[in-house]
Amino acid sequence: MLARSALRSSLRAAAPSAPRMFSSSAADRHAVAVLGASGGIGQPLSLLLKNDPLVTSLRLFDVRLAPGVAADIGHVNTPAVTTGYSPDGPEGGLKKALEGAELVVIPAGVPRKPGMTRDDLFNTNASIVRDLAKTAAEVCPKAHILVISNPVNSTVPIVAEVFKKAGVYDPKRLFGVTTLDVTRASTFLSGIAGAKPSETIVPCVGGHSGPTIVPLLSQAAQGSAVKAGEAYEKLVHRIQYGGDEVVKAKDGAGSATLSMAYAAAVFSNSLMRAIGGESNVVECTYVDSPLYKDQGVDFFSSKVTLSGEGVGEIHPVGKLSAEEEKLMEACLPELKKNIQKGVQWYGENP
Ligand SMILES: NC(=O)c1ccc[n+]([C@@H]2O[C@H](COP(=O)([O-])OP(=O)(O)OC[C@H]3O[C@@H](n4cnc5c(N)ncnc54)[C@H](O)[C@@H]3O)[C@@H](O)[C@H]2O)c1
Ligand SMILES: O=C(O)C[C@H](O)C(=O)O
């Protein structure tokens, strides 16, 4: 995807021996806060953001270790000024981390262990995300909020409810990060098709858990490598349950962190480029979407052209194969349940 090559050139441009010089254009400068910055995702994500030339101020917040992570990452010789914030630290806490933030990336929360579903994380992560969102709504109501914490299908609607209650909800500025599904689909299909991952683009629509992840292999140039039958079903299953593969391999030590950090860095870079005025930046992302509202599905991931405001054009899913129609039939009712669960929980636990 465009975004990936842009990130790669960003990474090249920011090679340690030759930090990139910046124009003074405000469009090039972005303050990014990472909430949950000391975790498995937070640390590598913060490092990748420090290496992204579009980031000039990097604020790392966590309930533990954030000043240490910031001190470490801060020695990387790229321009982003990096500061760590803990709840009671001398630098100030969460509010200070969020002051002036343009992007707020949230990987705070607990990850899965083998045998758990993402929904099993709901009870713990819902309140963590709600509380962080409350402070963001107060301190940086115009920031773009990028939610990583699971279950994304439910945590994103919770953030929307928090912002609505605070009277500052802008649906163009709220994103569930589903980039990892697209990343996995590209990796797995390119491996089968013998193609370059960078040229293997598989849109993934719906949500971010098992049957709600709908890979549109028919829309990938290499999709004919696995048209239907057993190979197709195996690939779809691997994309939908790629997270389980990592959870199992880590054997109790958590879920995907490094690939997720990469995916979130790609998405953040795309969003910053779009905010800075670049056109035709397209990513799949879980947003407040009109596509299936008539079926009670208020949030849906599909291709979105990012814009200066955040969400630009939300693209319909396009022509689906018979197999994909079936996947969509399984996705929508589950997604609707996950969304309702988040909204209802917030209604009872504002
Ligand atoms: N969207 C996706 O595609 C995707 C992919 C992978 C993981 N995830 C999810 O991301 C979340 C984080 O995963 P991880 O592996 O980094 O977990 P982790 O336990 O390694 O890190 C989580 C971090 O959050 C911090 N934290 C907890 N409560 C906090 C609070 N109130 N404020 C600030 N920080 C707080 C913890 O101290 C910890 O450092 C999980 O919910 C996981 O399921 C999502
Ligand atoms: O699988 C998980 O629990 C983490 C994440 O959502 C993933 O897709 O890897």
From TrEMBL:
Subunit structure comment from the entry: Homodimer.
Entry GO terms, CC: mitochondrion
A GO molecular function held by the record: L-malate dehydrogenase (NAD+) activity
Coiled coil residues, start to end: none
Catalyzed reactions per annotation: (S)-malate + NAD(+) = oxaloacetate + NADH + H(+)
UniProt record, GO biological process: malate metabolic process; tricarboxylic acid cycle
Domain Lactate/malate dehydrogenase N-terminal, chain residue ranges per copy: 32-176
NCBIfam families given in the database record: MDH_euk_gproteo
Enzyme Commission number(s) of this protein: 1.1.1.37
InterPro entries assigned to the protein according to its UniProt record, in alphabetical order: L-lactate/malate_DH, Lactate/malate_DH_C, Lactate/malate_DH_N, Lactate_DH/Glyco_Ohase_4_C, Malate_DH_AS, Malate_DH_type1, NAD(P)-bd_dom_sf
Protein name per Swiss-Prot or TrEMBL: Malate dehydrogenase
Domain Lactate/malate dehydrogenase C-terminal: 178-344
Record has Oxidoreductase as a keyword: yes
Binding site for NAD(+): G36, A37, S38, G39, G40, I41, G42, D62, N125, I148, S149, N150, M260
PROSITE patterns with a match to the protein in the record: MDH
Organism the protein comes from: Tilletiopsis washingtonensis
Sequence positions that bind substrate: R112, R118, N150, R184
Family of this protein: Belongs to the LDH/MDH superfamily. MDH type 1 family.
Enzyme class: oxidoreductase
